[in-house]
Amino acid sequence: MVDSQIQVDKSNEEGIERACYILFNNYLYFPGRKNPSFPRQFCIVAKAESQFGLDRKAAVRCKVTIPRFEPKIVQKDPPSAEPFDYSGKFNGVFPFSFVDNFPELTIALPFGILESELNAQKDGVWLIYSWKVSDAHVSVHQSNTSEKFKERFDLSLKVSLKSIAENVDCTVKVGFSFPASPVTAGTKVGIWIQGADSSCDASGFFSHAFGLDALMAGTIRSTLASQAVGLVGAVINEEDFNDWVVDDPALKTLLEQAWIGGTDCEAPFPPGICLKVSWPQRSLGDHRNAVRASVPPATTPADISGLAELREELRKISPRMPLPNDPNGYAFPAKIHGGQYDDGDMTIFGGLLCLSGEPEGCELVRRSQGLNGEFWRSPARANSDTDDQFSGDQFKGIAAFWAKTGDIQSFTSYLNRISKKWTPYPSKATNLVRMYNGCTMDPGGKCNLIDEEWRWLNIFADRFGVNSQIPADARDYIAKFGDPVGMLPWKAMINKLGYRVHLVAIEIYIAKKLGITDPRIDAAAEILVGRQPENPFYVFLARGKDARVVDLVKRKCIVDSAKTEWYQWSWERAESDQAWKDSMGWDCIFMINNLLN
Hints:
The model is unreliable at 1-6, 25-41, 67-102, 140-152, 187-194, 201-205 and 427-431 (pLDDT under 50). By secondary structure, the chain is α+β, with helices and mostly antiparallel strands. It is globular. The strands form eight sheets. A five-stranded antiparallel sheet has the order 8-9-10-11-13. Strands 7-15-14-12 form a four-stranded antiparallel sheet, with no helix packed on it. Strands 1-4 form a two-stranded antiparallel ribbon. It has helices at 205-209, 212-227, 230-236, 241-244, 249-256, 283-293, 307-317, 346-356, 359-367, 392-405, 408-420, 451-464, 477-481, 484-494, 499-513, 519-531, 536-543, 547-556, 586-596, and strands spanning 5-10, 17-24, 42-49, 60-65, 86-89, 95-98, 104-110, 116-122, 125-140, 151-162, 167-177, 181-182, 192-198, 259-264, 272-278, 320-322, 331-333, 335-337, 340-342, 422-427, 431-436. Helix 9 (359-367) crosses helix 10 and helix 15 runs antiparallel to helix 16 (519-531).
């Protein structure tokens, strides 16, 4: 919209409030911009309230003039190279969009995930609040045109107050808003509780006496912090963005231009809270092009002489953890940290080793599968009771394992298990959808299967000829979750350097090993190496068996039998960490395999 002008004519009738304003849907206030960010629709709202009740009148007359779009388009900036329209989701509740003109990232958090328990103590008596969202609507609060756009969520919550002495059921109303703020401001985005009150017999007593508003604010904030990932998760968790940009100064400039605010979720997203990040026009497109322009060019074909000998030396000294009580003395690739074996996250590293051609990695993943078909983080943890059994990150390891081995029995055993283990999840379209889960105990939902996992499961089911074993509601995973391939360039550009970016690299690696081609995959690989050109894994993904890869591997993979710390998979760390100094050895074997095989 070129401009918006509101003219209000007030009648002579009495009234304590006479107002007129425009309500925009899908709107985020952006400081410094004269116009809103592409609203999908707007409503003219006229409001009048009589001073003395229903027997008196109040009226207001609104005249709204909104000029048309200018028919002439003047292009001030050159078009971006390869202007992809990236669309996808972070996971089952994270939709997003990416366009060059006015990019916005939206994180959708269904009200269902806010349902929780709160504990409070009053005069030595503990109360437990168990609450569910029974109703929610949005009202816009805007006193004048200079006020930043805010939306307030008025929620009716069913709360059960339980204590040693009594059980009381109350309906509590709570309102909270999401004012826009800079991404890098370190503010507690999204948790501005404006008030809470209850309908208990002693009206308001429980909510005020036990500080229900503060308890709910803390619970909502912790829930958002646990669910939101990537850039939005960093804002909510108040991460230090100075730490984000140590290895990527250009990202600091981009982040400083972004703003974050809150709104209610519109279809097709689940009913709930939507947090939206916005940038000025073309900021993301220009940043992406600058990153890709900094990618080092290809050099010469790799000289692999000496790599086989280096690999054999590393195989001799890289740590292996004995499997307890194994009669054959089996030991699997692991880490050593602080003088102790460490098998955390070894399924993902074992899968990568497997796909690179290392049989020990394949055996590690195979032994990490339990009797019920589920997977654990290492063979030493298989079939154990734990609430930290597995995660979506670790799933990439078993995807790499299936890509290499084609182990249909392992695959179908896993599918049979997860097909039987699901929970209802809120959805705008169907009210409830099935969310499948790959862990025995998973209170945090880390094992919920989302877009990336279902993409690989559908790919392998097709390759193995067992499509019928995929649950019917998970076969069209793009319709249910979004396109994870479309998300790769975005994650490659915005995610913090370190393990978050490395997860993107693994997706690219598996796809390339399977011969899957897509320009978005290639674009993501280029962005990775543009951001971290000293990472041999990223250079390999973009340039293949290039001499630069060999040079980086030889510089960072040192045989040192006197070393005591062997716990880093170097390629998942930022350059400033210098993680190769504490390499577990297996990360180097992985890279050498890729160059030799």
